[in-house]
Description:
Oligomer: homodimer
Largest sheet of chain A: 13 strands, mixed
Distance between the termini of chain A: 70 Å
Amino acid sequence: MLGLMQSQQLLISSLIEFAQRHHGEGEIVSRRVEGDIHRCTYREVAERSRRVANALDALKLEFSDRVATLAWNGYRHLELYFGVSGSGRVLHTLNPRLHPDQITWITKHAEDRVLCFDLSFLPIVKAIHARCTTIKHYIALCDADKLPADSGIAGLLSYEAWIGAQSGNYRWPSFDENSASSMCYTSGTTGNPKAALYSHRSTMLHAFAGALPDALSMSARDTVLPVVPMFHVNAWGLPYSAAMTGAKLVFPGPAMDGKSIYELIEGERVSFAAGVPTVWQMMLGHMQAAGLRFSTLKRTVIGGSACPPAMITAFNDLYGVEVLHAWGMTEMSPLGTVCTLKNRHLALSPEEKMKIRLKQGRGIFGVDMKIVDGQGAELPWDGKAFGDLLVRGPWIISDYFKGEEGSPLIDGWFPTGDVATIDADGYMQITDRSKDVIKSGGEWISSIDVENIAMAHPSVAMAACIGMKHPKWDERPIIAVVKKPGAEVSREELLAFYEGKTAKWQIPDDVVFVDAIPLGGTGKMQKTKLREMLKDYRLPTA
Amino acid sequence: MLGLMQSQQLLISSLIEFAQRHHGEGEIVSRRVEGDIHRCTYREVAERSRRVANALDALKLEFSDRVATLAWNGYRHLELYFGVSGSGRVLHTLNPRLHPDQITWITKHAEDRVLCFDLSFLPIVKAIHARCTTIKHYIALCDADKLPADSGIAGLLSYEAWIGAQSGNYRWPSFDENSASSMCYTSGTTGNPKAALYSHRSTMLHAFAGALPDALSMSARDTVLPVVPMFHVNAWGLPYSAAMTGAKLVFPGPAMDGKSIYELIEGERVSFAAGVPTVWQMMLGHMQAAGLRFSTLKRTVIGGSACPPAMITAFNDLYGVEVLHAWGMTEMSPLGTVCTLKNRHLALSPEEKMKIRLKQGRGIFGVDMKIVDGQGAELPWDGKAFGDLLVRGPWIISDYFKGEEGSPLIDGWFPTGDVATIDADGYMQITDRSKDVIKSGGEWISSIDVENIAMAHPSVAMAACIGMKHPKWDERPIIAVVKKPGAEVSREELLAFYEGKTAKWQIPDDVVFVDAIPLGGTGKMQKTKLREMLKDYRLPTA
């Protein structure tokens, strides 16, 4: 027997419709490519996203056709989020930090029909458009009078002219909530990039779960700054959860430097910000150098890669900002865990709380996890046993788009490629990437643990630990270090800094000072490239 | 094109499975019918709800068969919530405050197969069981040694013996998320009671929306006291949202008096409580008389009927507890609106904030509203125009169970029977029930407005406004008043109290002092009965 409840599909269009009706005056503030600050409301974004839908109809785009973006975080990108998906097309957020050849390959693999891009990325589009054979329409996200005359891109239109020609009236269609809504390619350290193909249903359930108090806790009283790019797993779903709750949105545009981000937080009274550690590192550096404080920021979610303990301490102790460590993946929409405390932790000492905060956190409702050993047998949740982390849930992929290699699932579980522990309270801690873990004498050494100790040294700006071949131990760790500007630390001083902080056999065999550690398109350290950089290096202990 | 995300049905069993796995040590505290305090964990509730599922299998109950309860808020009732719905049967929470004849009629209409009841309700069950022809199994929610020997109920089993004979191992089945999960009959002031038949999907989406920061804001850091009964629209969904978030649950059992509720709040460090105004009135009375304070309570949600402004002020000003005014209906699962503030309200003065807090609140995500005039034309959201309130959303009914009178929907919208205004920010305020509004000389007078003024008088414990026939004005309001114990106020003093607080023509024509105002099964004032009580009353102005 079925229940007798109203039948409504879970569709992304319902988010912007709700925001217009219940939070019409809610603010969207964007720093634009032009450098100025632009202000609009949910009502205006809703109206303009309906124009986008009409404009896509006018281009005769079919249901599920892909519309690509190469764009920073801003109101026009937000309008595309709702206009493209809401009208039944698939929003494909391209990562502009990838190599132009990769971007070209991705647009062809995705069969993108339209490309909307910020003028910052005109050089990329100029370089690739002739090879992007599936793309028939190019839209520059700018006013009509800013459109470059000599782009060489046939039929290039300005976004404002494109949607300005359309009506703001549009009736959002209803369709199967399992229909594809958006897609995102993983950076793909090995092989070709692979895409997660999200559905309206998965996006909506993720928006619900992500807005809960134990996850990102979003409300109409929040002012939210997604520093994490909208081309990086839909800015962790923040644009959707914000529309669901009517939170004020503040978009940084291209200005991701510490000073610009800090000024935006203060100027717009941001209460909640989200981003990867590298961005916060820059901002904290700027603040420390200039002796600045926050006046409104209360919480920050840090994810994308493991957050160094020193950063959590700095936010918490120096600035009174609660750091929520989070973990997820492109294949997970992306939210998997958030490190919020439980009832019985509230009475713990600051030190004991910090021990919990260092973990990646508890599974948010909807995400189930397990850790398994090399044979696939489930390991206990005791905070000690570590093994390959597998996840499942309604916003986790079942297959990659055009999954040439077959389903990645193992008995219905998605293998994350991370190695982790889970404690009795369900708090998960990544100990390493499966491919980065260092196997020394039959024991595993977590490269992240080794890095975190180095990062706590006052002279260290960034540190990356990799394993080096060793005749006796198989592999031994070394630490590659970038010093802070003007700071000094010797190899011996840094190795001595490890004494008492970890087991002797987990102390790296050597320190290599480098000018920079290679970062990938999403700000993560690229250890493959670091290994290439150090290919002539010889381990002194070998 | 469909997305490529894992396919999972939204099922109630997933809530208790999640709570067991991620909040296994989370506490469930219950005051029992026996008077003692019982403590258990989500892990134990999960295990025992699997025993319930096995016990229902052993009774050969089919998918969608109804299992009825006559029970207070407690851990055994919670186990039935998950065991009955999770195994594919329909949980039917009977309201013990209804007349036994009504309960009998309802069990037959619902075709209940099993009845689980607290021993408090043994007299009811004894009185009706011979007539409840569809019920084949009776389970008393007690230990085996507490089972009454002489009940006269054939085959009566104790709950503990019933589930104790079963295994705690059970694999929750997967099925269509639109399947019926639970049902609740409306108190039915006119005609026969009618039932809302909830689905797993509607219950899960309601649990998500209800737990959001702008609704009830539930987290693993909360200790939640549902004073609202589990037989009253599933205690507003709190048992589901609590399992979703791992909140500690505290159940009051049958002890709903002010002293017992206060002691439970203090003893269990409750942070958040939810109930109808009448219960809070008793508790505030007890606290004021004994000079007590709260040490942990931060928020209370008040719904079920309009909350008198004086109560909001008392909670807020005297005790520092934030009152969230809420509104919903059995037909709405029940949450429709919650009165949480927005970003731009935070800087308002306490007086201006109070003006907002008096409203029933904003639609939570998923609920859409409109107000219409007598011809069905939509009225503006200006906070002034008032009309019939209609709602729609995925946790609002499309039909009543066995809906003999056809679908209640009007063009897809459910007519609430309330009259309301909605302001430009989406805040809805009930001005009356359609049937209670007083039509005086072509103008409408809100009976609730008239009551709220009387309730603010220090000598008034309860007040009900009804319309009386008037030869010239069609109807004129009178106010029926229950004085506080030992307090005195005259008719003239009370009428003078209205001066300056409302328009002259909205001041009641008379005051009638009564010993009590009749309350219905859910604690709401029954104006139909009040009108019967006053059938010989003559309006002095007529």
